From TrEMBL:
Name under which the protein is recorded: NADP-dependent malic enzyme
Cross-referenced SMART domains: malic, Malic_M
Catalytic residues (positions): 104 (proton acceptor)
Binding-site residues, a divalent metal cation: 146-147, 172, 297
Keyword entries, A-Z: Metal-binding, Multifunctional enzyme, NADP, Oxidoreductase
Signal sequence, renumbered to the chain: none
GO molecular function: acyltransferase activity; malic enzyme activity; metal ion binding; NAD binding; oxidoreductase activity, acting on the CH-OH group of donors, NAD or NADP as acceptor
Subunit record text: Homooctamer.
Domain Malic enzyme N-terminal: 28-161
PROSITE patterns membership: MALIC_ENZYMES
Amino acid sequence: MTDKPVPRRTRPTFTDQEALQFHSQGRPGKLEVVPTKPMATQRDLSLAYSPGVAVPVKAIAENPTCAFDYTARGNMVAVISNGTAILGLGNLGALASKPVMEGKAVLFKRFADVDSIDLEVDTEDADAFINCVRYLGPSFGGINLEDIKAPECFIIEERLRELMDIPVFHDDQHGTAIIAAAGLINALHLTGRDVKSTRLVVNGAGAAGIACVELLKAMGFAPDKVILCDTKGAIYQGRTEGMNQWKSAHAAKTDARSLADAMAGADAVFGLSAKGAFTPEMIASMAPKPIIFAMANPDPEITPEEVAAIRDDAIVATGRSDYPNQVNNVLGFPYIFRGALDVLATTINMEMKIAAAQALAELAREDVPDEVAAAYQGSRPRFGREYIIPVPFDPRLIHTVPAAVARAAMDTGVARRPIVDMRAYKTQLSARRDPVAGTLARIFERVRRFPKRVVFAEGEEEQVIRAALAFVNQGLGTAILVGREERIHETARAAGIDLEGRENLEIHNARLSQRNGAYARFLYDRLQRQGFLLRDCQRLINQDRNHFGASMVALGDADALITGVTRNYSIALSDVRRVIDAKPGHRVIGVSVCLARGRTVLVADTAIHEMPDAQELSEIAIEAAGVARRLGYEPRVALLSFSTFGHPQAERAEKIQEAVRILDRARVDFEYDGEMSADVALNRDLMAAQYPFCRLTGAANVLVMPAFHSASISTRMLQELGGSTVIGPLIVGLDKPVQIVPLGATDNDIVNMAALAAFNVGG
Ligand SMILES: NC(=O)C1=CN([C@@H]2O[C@H](COP(=O)(O)OP(=O)(O)OC[C@H]3O[C@@H](n4cnc5c(N)ncnc54)[C@H](OP(=O)(O)O)[C@@H]3O)[C@@H](O)[C@H]2O)C=CC1
Ligand SMILES: CC(=O)C(=O)O
Ligand SMILES: [Mg+2]
């Protein structure tokens, strides 16, 4: 092996307070329920509820399979726990497990568009738990059991699988086993081993450990080469202490009595036990090129740094996202259920699990295309010791793993609704990918690769300090807080934030800065013919943080500026414009990115031009198309109006038609058309049916509004009424990267905008 392991932490750390704040801000928790049908009129109510609802009721009573057509059941999975084995934290009870279960539910949605709800069942009695869950079958298309300790989890899962005709899947058992198996297949390949002769130790004989051993044996591992260990040491034939039937089934014929005995000379070890369970001596005693999967969460049995201090020939994986090789069941459960639900599988069987493991293993060996490289941290990953398994953000997972699972379900006769056209199914799967997180994740990863110095102009504000810290902690670059040092520390202390000795965090007091003379002279050069004296410029630099911060960027002392928390947008913008010009040949505009219902639509101009003329509209279209491209979308630009292609005829629509003609003459390199109404622009079917001559090849993803008021009103309505996430307005076309957040923005908004500024989304 030539590539050296780099056991570095690749990702952010965060404080406990940040974790609590993340969970409590806005609507507490991580999920909500939203209706999928309108509930606006009397008729809607009559259809959704009594009397209309009686019709599907009778249809389902007659044919139960209809429930998958008339209710949410077919796409709904329950995440159910009693909190007896929460991650590696132990038995902390049903209520304490809720944050994890909500987390699993949102991961289902985020990664595979599976609707999911968490249910915490407050009993440790296996029979009571089974009785509670068994009667919930009609509500769900699948049951994901989570964080239930062994051995009760085996009894519970087995019994529920017998009682229910939908997939019942204990994620800590099978999800973990599938991902670990995928990683192991690749690690064996890289180290030139084969399944039959590999000596494996699995530490932890609970839910995850037992399931891993079972799956690996089903995949060909030799039973006499696999040793299971628990708190009492090796599980050998004849052992009586701390045993149960599941451990007995895997008791090995071995002289090993302790974990240390078992690990001596072992090729591979799985940690599914607890923090710190592996000692340096144990790691040192393993065979050459050992495979070490330390999967306890949140803290592994041994860290990659600790392994690296002992030997440099190991392949190391953990359950965490902040080290290379994350072996975590998040790579499995969303996609496995997606495939199972799509074929109405009655169960998730061994063949489906093996198909998922193989699909994951193969994916990691494939060349990473450009589109995918952007989703990975650091440089483009290449199959090797630091990349044995895809990362959860890999956009190929959604069309690879569910398809493999669905195919295996069909081949083994457990699919109630087989897929006829696999190719079409894969296309549908890709469309389920949530673009919100994908887009931002891509941008964050890009900035991490090329970290920047970003000025946070309103450095004395608490949420700005939090945002600056989060920016630094996420590895996005250096944060420069503008403000009085003492005041910033005071605010931070009052908020319980420790700023002492932070790397990559600078504080600049405009009044005391050695650069303020240079900034004032620079500003005076720009403003002397606009009635400003040198002392006016000095005052602006000393007293106004936007002028100071923008000058830092203009003169190259920083890469980007973020402001707006305490000032009106237009005031902040005019401060900045005194210091920074438009990029030559560009027009400064505002673009809002609206993310709704799986679609991303850019709206322009949401910030600058109140009543653009035709020429300005055409330039707005060009700038907005540029933003779309920078965000990774191929632009399809619609110039909007209340009329569509001349109907109804109106004087105001003429300027839109003229803007289209200007774009024609300019021979721009993106799709555009207009004038058209918003419904035509966004609804491809309507467009094709009514206006087959329209030049857009799909629904528009860039909407150029006829004026500022329509742009501003529509985006705000989308946000408030439509439940869209609206990012921006992003300032586009300035010569240096500056972004302005809305008044009173949260720390999260500020970090996102800072990342967008650092990414130079504005061109
Ligand atoms: N990365 C991933 O995707 C996943 C990781 N995990 C992690 O695996 C661990 C176990 O989870 P799970 O199987 O659900 O829990 P269980 O409670 O079902 O089982 C825990 C097992 O670990 C054993 N154990 C605990 N501490 C030690 C120790 N210091 N040395 C040896 N054995 C020990 C227990 O031994 P005994 O039987 O003697 O009590 C028991 O067999 C957790 O840390 C969890 O976070 C779990 C699922 C997924
Ligand atoms: C990842 C997971 O499910 C666990 O650690 O329990
Ligand atoms: Mg778990």
